[in-house]
Structures are given as C-alpha cells and as structure tokens.
Amino acid sequence: MFDAQSAFPQARMTALTAIFTRRSVRAFSSEPLTDQQVECLLAAGMAAPSAGNAQPWEFILLRDKQLLEKIPAINPYAAFAPQAPLGILICGNTTREKYAGFWIEDTSAATQNILLAAHALGLGACWTGIYPMQERVQGFRQLVGAPEYVLPMAFVSVGYPRKAVQTSVDRYKSDRVHHNVWGQQ
Ligand SMILES: Cc1cc2nc3c(=O)[nH]c(=O)nc-3n(C[C@H](O)[C@H](O)[C@H](O)COP(=O)(O)O)c2cc1C
Fold it and tell me: What's the whole-model pTM score?
C-alpha cells in the first residue's frame, strides 16, 4: 500500500482544500517528476471507488516526446501535451468489469483522484477528454497499441506549473440544488 504520509510528509493539504483549489494546468516547466511522485499519482488513481470494486482501469505512462508530439493531432485541445514531462492515459478494460458499462464512471473517479493527488503534491495537471469521441479513442488506442477491449477514457498531462495558477473560483449555484422533488428550491 502506498504510504503517502511517509513519502510526502510535507504535503499537508486537506481533502477539502485540494478539492476547492485545484485548477487545470496547461503550461509546465521541463522539470521531470520523481518515481515516487508518479507512484503516488497511480496509487491515488487506483484508490478510487469502482462498481462492484472491479477496478477495471489501466494506466499507460507516456514520457516519450515522439509519442507525446502525436497527441495534438488526436485531440487539438491537448496542444500542450508535448510540453508536459508526463502524460497518463487512463483506460477502461472491459474484460475486468463486473457490471458492464460502469468502466466510464470508474475511470472518471480514478482520473479525478489523480488530478487531486497531483495538486496536493504541488504539481499541475489537466484532464483532456477522449471517450466517447470515437476518433480520439481510436487515435489513442493506435498510439499506444492497446487492444480492442481497452478503451482510452482520458489523457492527463502532469508536471510542475510554469506559472502561478489562479485557485479561487466559486461555482456554487443554488438553483442546481433541488429539495426532495425537482424544482423545489
Ligand atoms: C471530460 C473532460 C474533458 C476535458 N477535455 C479537455 C481538453 O481536451 N483540453 C483542455 O484543455 N481541457 C479539458 N478539460 C478541462 C476543462 O476545460 C476544465 O476542467 C474546466 O474548464 C474547468 O476548469 P478547472 O479544471 O480549472 O476547474 C476537460 C475536462 C473534463 C472533465
């Protein structure tokens, strides 16, 4: 079991602070991540809840610049991917599912855990969307040589933020909250 407290005793951010101050980071310095940081991100992903505890995820680490440079052609909104020292391709493995179809929620929960862990470690990260866009699914599958039963769901770029990140945003909207029945606010 990854012991985050021992590995990163200085990372003292509470869960709530991490949730409320995390922002997408799209500009990175070239400083590489340590093996321990990467292990922490993966352990955080694998600590996520999943339907029937099936854990139907696979994580493909991309550090090869030649591969990273092919990503903007697959997702033009991931133009910054080659600048990050690490990319994590989060995939659902449908052969590992207990309840068909829930791999989407399971891998999404893992992705969010990775974003929060990166932030708690003082790193920056950005989720770039793949599934359900079929051309992106095929593009990433081809890029890493994954079989048909493996579905790329998200690609997360990770690294040290190149500039200060704006952290405070308030997205609370009371009209999105319904008490007992739809529309009762
Ligand atoms: C499913 C999903 C797909 C996303 N795809 C992209 C993307 O392709 N490129 C990108 O720059 N950001 C992408 N984002 C990040 C969002 O733009 C970002 O989360 C949103 O603007 C809110 O900003 P914040 O993350 O700083 O709170 C994606 C986020 C999600 C959840």
Answer: 0.97
